[in-house]
């Protein structure tokens, strides 16, 4: 049976769901699940949860737990990564970038590049340990910035790896909700880069649904009663029509999977002036929301459940960690699935940079993960993506070579940053970010 190591297992909002996903499959219930986190208190809580749910349901799952990954990596078949390096540092980065008029993001832009600087160095260390202890295992990455992390793994290690993200599912959920159709009756073909992929095909009951969507959104969506990213229901869930997504669709011909949570930070159109932020109702985009009261309340409720006689259910509800469990299940059983993964561009998307990190459909079966050929993206879609690939490439090289100049250049070519700030203003902001991140840039020149 497979041995699955979860690094960053103290993340309650990931590890709990992923462990439940694994246990959902009878074929995986005899697996070994090894939990790793440097935060001993969080690790102990997640270990208690895992032991409890296994015991409650009478499974034979073997549980290991440690703060030292070297103790459990040997013999691993899968290593699932959900680390967050410098959690509090991200808040400081947010304050610096917001002061200079650039919203915070964990994937692109100044804060995304510096998060990559912190994350990638640790992730490469993990992969180098894997090269020694479990060289044939799969590394499945959930940590952002996805493209910078995965590109670095692909170019600077020998480990088999994929990056996984729930946005493919979330994008479809938003489209079908606005269209009033059933998720189960939809199929799609998605390709691009992480947080900025395009639904090149979108079908309902086997028929092209784009003509109907074009008709639906041809009017003035700004006047719709529920227009705007930040419209929420009583439970705090977003319910509004995403004005940025619709604008991108009407202007460039295809829906994206990035939503107003990411797309406005990849392109220069929506957030460079206050009146645009107001027009597209983007007031909460780029706000670092971790540690909010709702998340703290959820954490406290989880602790209470672990300590009480609460019985944790095994359900097949969608959880965004499901893609990793599905990969393990398909390789174990041979049941084929198609999952969008972040992989190295080896002639897959032919009008994007060879060797960059792309998000494309992949066939998963007993033999592993097989990226599907996409060919050329529509030229307008490729043109919008390329500037962000330039940012990612310079960031990857800057991190690997410990080169501050390349890090600066990565941020200088960022589409939104360069639309808002001058070279001197960007240089000043980057100097502040380097100073704030000084414990993570030792050895950089």
Describe the protein's architecture and organization.
The mean pLDDT is 93. The strands form three sheets. Strands 3-2-1-4-5-6 form a six-stranded parallel sheet, with helices on both faces. Strands 7-8-9 form a three-stranded antiparallel sheet. It has a three-stranded antiparallel sheet with strand order 10-11-12, covered by helices on one side. The relative contact order is 0.14. It has a domain of 113 residues. The protein is of the alpha/beta class. It is built from 16 helices and twelve strands. The protein is globular. The longest helix is centred in the first third of the chain and has 25 residues. β1, α1 and β2 form a beta-alpha-beta unit. Helices cover 46% and strands 15% of the residues. The termini are far apart.
What key phrases describe this protein's structure?
445 residues, alpha/beta, six-stranded parallel sheet, three-stranded antiparallel sheet, 12 strands
Assess the beta-strand content as a share of residues: 15-25%
Mean pLDDT across residues? 93
- Supply Rg: 21 Å
Biggest β-sheet: strands ordered side by side in the sheet: 3-2-1-4-5-6
> How is the main sheet built?
6 strands, parallel
- The count of helical stretches stands at 16
Flag low-confidence runs.
none
State the order of secondary-structure elements, H for helix, E for strand: EHEHEEHHEHEHEEEHHHHHHEEEHHHH
Number of strands: 12
Structural class: alpha/beta
Task: Indicate the multimeric state.
Answer: single chain
N-to-C CA distance: 46 Å
Name the helicity range: 40-55%
Q: Describe the global form.
A: globular
